[in-house]
Amino acid sequence: MMRSEKFFYDYDDYESGEKDALTLAQEVLADSDLPDLDELVIGCWGESYDNSVQSLLDEFTANADKLRHLKSLFIGDMDYEECEVSWIEQGNYEELLAALPGLEKLTIKGSVGLSLGKVRHAALQEIEIICGGLPKNVLHELAAAELPALTKLNLYLGVEEYGFDGGIEDVKTLLHSPLMRQLTYLGLGDSEWQDEVVEAVLEVLPLLRLEVLDFSNGTLTDQGGQLLLDAKDKLKNLKKIDLTYHFLSDEMMERLKATGLPFVLDDPQETDIDEDDGYIYRFPMLTE
Fold first, then answer.
1. What is the sign, positive or negative, of the torsion defined by CA atoms of 201, 86, 268, 155?
2. Residue in 113, 115, 109, 112 with CA at minimum distance from that of residue 79
3. Domain 161-287 bears CATH identifier 3.40.50.10800
4. Which of 249, 187, 260, 180 is CA-nearest to residue 220?
5. Contact 142, 162 (CB under 8 A)
6. CATH 3.80.10.10 domain extents, the chain
7. For 125-144, how does the pLDDT look when each residue is reduced to its tens digit (9 = 90+)?
8. Architecture of 1-124 per CATH?
9. Mean pLDDT of 204-222
10. What does the pLDDT read at residue 32?
11. In terms of pTM, does the model score above 0.85?
12. Count H helices, E strands: the chain?
């Protein structure tokens, strides 16, 4: 069983202004339980909306000999009361990843200032980035990455207002990269243009060896549902197609169920229509 511990500050810890990302890193490195941990989880590092995590990443890199036994690392595990996800000040992970060659799983929450840099890592098997808007540089960094052990990639794409500064062509750059051909789990969800993401993935799906396809938490509509119906032969080898949190009609859900394919259709959403101008509003699950 994996032994995990979370380190974080609450308001009482950092209100004096004497604690920040650097002091949290120092406390982690000095903790007597650290050598026995398999997973390290970092929560709020104190005013995380105005205090970048970079000093923590740098301190961990400088003391990597104390962390090389870790298999899993989660940076940014905090709820909205501690810091809205779109405000979390992230950093550059290139040097830290290089310093932890045994790491197998990386989870990052938040995307302000996020960069993976030039990624070359032989052991990393899973990457998940949870955010309200993923910078396009991260898509391109992953497309160029050398991650021979990676089998799971789950990305929250988010919305332009909260950090997504790319377009479908940036997603396609990732989809056409060699990295995609080794994955068994691909998640590209939480998008404000989820239908277009579905279309882009279906174009390359025959080239991939996926077992799980995750389009959850986005603004998937009947347009995307029809694309999935039309591509049902491409989907027959999948073990799970996760569409949780969607804007599909009841009729479309029934048609998808009737295929016998492993669609997950939980948490349907209602489209909001402005009474004055008739404008249609649909929002991904996680934005601000």
1. positive
2. 109
3. no
4. 249
5. no
6. 1-124, 161-287
7. 999 999 999 999 999 999 99
8. Alpha-Beta Horseshoe (3.80)
9. 97
10. 97
11. yes
12. 10, 12
